[in-house]
Structure formats: structure tokens, C-alpha cells
């Protein structure tokens, strides 16, 4: 039995230790060229959304649903509490029509089988090391733990025949990290050719030594079809928790970028600048792509963001030529904290028929706070359009919150299922008539 409780506690402590950043010599860099307009300070664009009271079965009406809660959803849609799962994180639909939900805090994977009433809940896996990412390829279930990626044969609600696809991954108990690891949770996605992609987050805020570690941290890794050693697929990815394969087979990531960045024109860390910089990257990955962290940051937005030098780590540009890097395809506002990412193609009514769904956890270090939401990026000819809010209303004007979405996945019934690790819930967001 693995000691996942202790590991989770160590990871939380480490996260608190590094959350304030670890800046190096803040030497002044030349002012960057004028950039596109900054991401808006407002939390969510609510055009076309309407307030609805979240429906709750009395048996599920524990806090925060012991009082009415309102969400913002597309006009005519409904939202209900479908299940209560403590600290529910990422989710994937199984071939048998059940929804699997990861619980890193308990080391378990839960199975929610739809019924006419509440879903029937059972435990598929237990005793794991902070299981987070879940993905299916046929009847094979992939689970990203903090220290390895495993595959299981899934049938009739059970996962058997475990085999390790990628071993010895860094987590809080890695000898060289000695508990100081803020981003141990990993995500996984499967390419159309059977390649396995998984994220390895950075140790901390601007821990440049991650790039030279073995395996390198702050990367998206790839295991080739049929197995073999994992190799870096994309680098400079601070924490690519959002990881998904698009309808055309391309791999995309939604990235938690750095905190407490200095203003490149003054080399000072000012809240006014930090609140709006850098935007969170949403990027298409190609073999060998470099996203710049911790030497370059995206700037401007919302689309085709150039990368500019980080004054604290790359003031003279000698560590990485930011101007030579391709622009970032899309973005969320600074400190939005994107987590789960999935694609839908033709399952939802217009204007949400095809696109990327991203669970947005919301900021901790921004004024005003970036509100939690489910974001939607329309998919057109291999490109993602600018962000829309699909579900909002989780945050009050005073910054208090009753929920924080993690992931959103479309179910076989044409509804969107949203996990929330703050409200300990799974929501069902249904278009009209579903």
C-alpha cells in the first residue's frame, strides 16, 4: 500500500513554499516592443449567458449546496449537481458509458455509472500515488500518477492487468527534490497513433534547473506507439495540466504560467503588472516545440501572443532568444489557472458544436481575482478561436467563491460534465432538451 497521504501533504507544503516565486537577479532588460492589448481585467465574458439556479437533489444538498447557488450558462441550458465526489479532479468517459473521476487526495479513481436517478458510484482503483490524468484508448485505461503513468485493461467497471508505461517520474519524494515540488500532479492524453503524452510540471515558479533534470521537468513527454522510453515532446511548459488531442490529431496544452513576474520596463514586481501578466498559454504542440519558460513569457493576446524576455531570468536574452519562438496560439487571462482540457466535435449545439473545453480554477494572486469558469474555444480549420465563457457565476463580486471547476467533458448523452474540487461535485450542464 503506497503512502499517498504523506506524499500529498508534502506536495501541499512544497506548493506553499514556492508559491511566492524564487526570482534571481532582477537585472533590467530593454523595454520590449509594444505588445497587443493586455488581457481584460474582468473575470468572464458573459454575453449570451443567463443565470440559472443549480438544481440539487436533497440527498446531495450538503455545503455549498445547502443554500441556493446560481450559475451563468447559455440561455436555455440547465445545470444540476449530478454527483458529490470529494476533491474531484480530472475525468474521462469509459467505453461502458461510465464517467471515471480521479481523486489525487485519496489515491483513488471513482466510477460514476449513469442511472435514471443519481449515478451509481464505485471505486475502480485505490492506493495510487496522487492519480490525476485519465485517458482511454479503446479498452485501455491510462492513469497518470505523480511518479509514473500506468495502463490497465478496463472491462465491466474494473481495471486489471496494470503495466507501467512511464516509470520513475519526479514527485515530492524524488531524492533530488527532497519534498520541494509544487506541481506533482500529471495529465495524460493518447494520440491517434497510440502515442502517450503526459505532463511533468515545474518544481516551482522559476526553477530553471528543471530544464536540465533527468527526466526534464516543465515538459510534455511522449511515449512512442508500442512503448519505449519517454522523450520530451515540448519544453518550457511550466505546468501543462491542460492536455488534450484535437479532432485533427494535434496535441494541445493549456499552461499555468509563472507568478510574480517583474515589469520588464522597471524590473520591479508590482501588483498592477502581476495581475495582468503573463497570460496563460493555450498552445498547439509540435515535436520539439519550445514554450519559453522560465526565460520567456507570452505577452498581449488573446491570440498569436509573442514571447518577450523575462527580466528576472533572461534580462539580456542570452538564455533564450524569445523573439525567435513562434507565437502562442491562444490564451486565457493571467493567473486563470487552466486545468482539465478536452475537445468536443459535433456533440453540442451551435455555437459550441466544436471546440476545446477548459476547466479554469481561478487566480490566487490577482486583483481583481480571475473568476473560476468553464472556458470554450471554438475550433475552426485546425485553429482555436478566442475564449468564451461557457459556465460562470462561481465567484461573487467580493471575490468569494462557491465552486472551482477543474475539468469539463462531453458525455454520451450530449451534456457536459464538470468536476469541481472546491465544491466536491460533478455537475451536469445540459443543452435544451437533453
TrEMBL record:
Start-end of Pro residues biased regions: 29-39
All copies of domain Pyrroloquinoline quinone-dependent pyranose dehydrogenase beta-propeller, residue ranges: 73-427
Residues annotated as signal peptide: 1-23
UniProt xrefs under Pfam families: TrAA12 (PF22807)
Keyword Ribonucleoprotein listed: no
Domain of life: Bacteria
Region called Disordered, residue ranges: 23-45
Keywords from the named record: Signal
Entry protein name: Gluconolaconase
Species this chain originates from: Mycolicibacterium novocastrense (Mycobacterium novocastrense)
Amino acid at each position: 500500500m503506497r503512502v499517498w497521504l504523506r506524499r500529498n501533504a508534502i506536495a501541499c507544503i512544497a506548493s506553499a513554499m514556492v508559491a511566492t516565486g524564487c526570482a534571481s537577479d532582477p537585472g533590467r532588460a530593454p523595454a520590449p516592443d509594444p505588445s497587443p492589448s493586455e488581457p481584460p481585467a474582468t473575470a468572464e465574458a458573459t454575453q449570451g449567458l443567463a443565470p440559472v439556479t443549480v438544481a440539487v437533489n436533497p440527498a446531495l444538498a450538503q455545503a455549498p449546496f445547502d443554500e441556493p447557488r446560481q450559475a451563468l450558462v447559455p440561455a436555455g441550458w440547465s445545470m444540476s449537481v449530478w454527483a458529490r465526489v470529494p476533491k474531484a479532479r480530472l475525468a474521462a468517459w469509459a467505453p461502458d458509458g461510465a464517467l471515471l473521476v480521479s481523486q489525487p487526495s485519496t489515491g483513488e479513481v471513482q466510477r460514476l455509472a449513469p442511472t435514471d436517478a443519481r449515478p451509481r458510484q464505485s471505486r475502480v482503483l485505490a492506493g495510487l500515488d496522487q492519480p490525476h490524468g485519465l485517458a482511454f484508448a479503446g479498452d485501455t485505461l491510462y492513469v497518470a500518477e505523480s511518479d509514473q503513468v500506468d495502463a490497465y485493461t478496463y472491462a465491466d467497471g474494473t481495471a486489471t492487468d496494470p503495466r507501467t508505461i512511464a516509470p520513475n517520474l519526479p514527485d515530492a519524494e524524488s531524492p533530488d527534490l527532497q519534498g520541494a515540488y509544487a506541481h506533482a500532479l500529471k495529465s495524460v492524453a493518447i494520440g491517434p497513433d497510440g502515442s502517450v503524452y503526459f505532463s511533468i510540471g515545474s518544481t516551482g515558479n522559476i526553477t530553471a534547473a528543471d530544464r536540465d533534470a533527468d527526466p526534464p521537468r516543465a515538459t510534455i513527454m511522449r511515449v512512442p506507439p508500442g512503448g519505449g522510453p519517454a522523450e520530451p515532446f515540448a519544453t518550457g511548459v511550466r505546468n501543462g495540466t491542460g492536455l488534450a488531442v484535437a479532432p485533427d490529431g494535434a496535441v494541445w496544452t493549456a499552461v499555468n504560467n509563472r507568478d510574480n513576474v517583474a515589469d520588464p520596463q522597471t524590473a520591479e514586481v508590482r501588483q498592477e503588472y502581476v495581475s495582468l501578466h503573463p497570460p496563460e498559454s493555450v498552445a498547439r504542440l509540435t515535436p520539439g516545440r519550445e514554450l519559453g519558460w522560465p526565460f520567456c513569457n507570452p505577452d498581449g493576446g488573446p491570440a498569436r501572443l509573442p514571447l518577450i524576455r523575462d527580466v528576472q531570468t533572461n534580462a539580456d536574452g542570452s538564455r533564450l532568444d524569445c523573439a525567435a519562438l513562434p507565437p502562442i496560439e491562444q490564451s486565457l487571462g493571467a493567473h486563470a489557472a487552466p486545468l482539465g482540457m478536452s475537445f468536443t466535435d459535433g456533440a453540442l449545439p451551435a455555437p459550441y458544436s466544436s471546440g476545446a473545453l477548459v476547466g479554469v480554477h481561478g487566480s490566487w494572486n490577482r486583483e481583481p481575482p480571475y473568476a473560476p469558469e468553464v472556458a470554450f474555444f471554438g475550433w475552426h480549420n485546425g485553429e482555436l478561436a478566442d475564449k468564451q465563457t461557457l459556465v460562470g457565476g462561481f465567484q461573487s463580486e467580493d471575490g468569494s467563491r462557491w465552486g472551482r471547476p477543474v475539468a469539463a467533458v462531453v458525455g454520451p448523452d450530449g451534456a457536459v460534465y464538470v468536476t469541481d474540487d472546491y465544491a466536491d461535485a460533478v455537475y451536469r450542464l445540459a443543452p435544451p432538451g437533453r
